[in-house]
Amino acid sequence: MKKYIKEAVDFLKQRGFEAPEVGVILGTGLGQIIEKVSIEAEMSYNHIPNFPTATVEFHKGKLIYGTLSGKKVILMQGRFHLYEGYSLEDVTFPVRVMHALGIKKLLVSNASGAINLAFKKGQIMLIEDHINLQGGSPLAFKGVEKMGERFVDMSAPYDVDMNQKIEEIAREQKITLHKGVYASVVGPQLETRAEYRYLKIIGADAVGMSTVPEVIVANHLELPVSALSVLTDECDPDNLKPVDIPEIIEMASKAEPYMITIFIELLKNI
């Protein structure tokens, strides 16, 4: 893996991806923040050596480098998922590449369903903790100990300092911000009524199909990470309606300006 990472890093450095400070992973329907970036370089995933290729129609599949809030940033415009047929090592490969390029912080966003019915679609949840239901680990491969501690402590996977700053920003900007536990499942099918009840019983406030692998690898790399979920639907098992993907995308777009505000203000203070 080290060889593959070096090949990707060398390729990107030759094309202007120099000395980034912060990495940002953008989830479903969360691409408008690109408009705020002073772009200096961009590259489609399928041109980067050893990179997976995004196959989901609403994930663009570009790595973008530039300046946002005075910080040099790399943004993943589209991410990878287990349900696309990739391995957990594939899904998290870009995090390792961004870290090797030099990022010191990682910000993650996703779209998720609200299990906690006090949370409403169109609102945002700050992830305080997570439950890994993806059936594997991105650290479960031969030679992982050569890239960091094998037995990574996950008692506080999300950076306390950045999370506190995010809460302060939300208060100052009068943005409704929930805090909760994110459960990551494989997908791509949505959950049954019984599965939603199960997720509530085990302590999940929201459910999605991403984020946790990237956060595990960030902790493996000792890379501070914070994550925000845009809540796109309400998962009430007693009043469950068929999934409406266009509505989910619409809800993500509705909440995105709040997430952008939080990320822009956070970048000024980290």
UniProtKB/TrEMBL annotation:
A molecular function (GO) term: purine-nucleoside phosphorylase activity
First-level EC class: transferase
Record's keyword terms, sorted? Glycosyltransferase, Transferase
By its UniProt entry, which InterPro entries does this protein fall under?
Answer: Nucleoside_phosphorylase_d (IPR000845), Nucleoside_phosphorylase_sf (IPR035994), Pur_Nuc_Pase_Ino/Guo-sp (IPR011270), Purine_phosphorylase (IPR011268)
Which CDD domains does the record cross-reference, listed alphabetically?
PNP-EcPNPII_like
Entry keyword Glycosyltransferase: yes
Asked whether the UniProt record includes Protease among its keywords, one would answer: no
**Enzyme Commission (EC) number:** 2.4.2.1
- Which SUPFAM superfamilies would you find in this protein's record? Purine and uridine phosphorylases
Specify the domain of life of the species encoding this protein. Bacteria
The Nucleoside phosphorylase domain covers: 22-267
Cited NCBIfam families: PNPH (TIGR01700), PNPH-PUNA-XAPA (TIGR01697), PRK08202.1 (NF006054)
User: What function is annotated for this protein?
Assistant: The purine nucleoside phosphorylases catalyze the phosphorolytic breakdown of the N-glycosidic bond in the beta-(deoxy)ribonucleoside molecules, with the formation of the corresponding free purine bases and pentose-1-phosphate.
The record, for PANTHER family, names: METHYLTHIOADENOSINE/PURINE NUCLEOSIDE PHOSPHORYLASE, PURINE NUCLEOSIDE PHOSPHORYLASE-RELATED
Task: Tell me what this protein is called.
Answer: Purine nucleoside phosphorylase
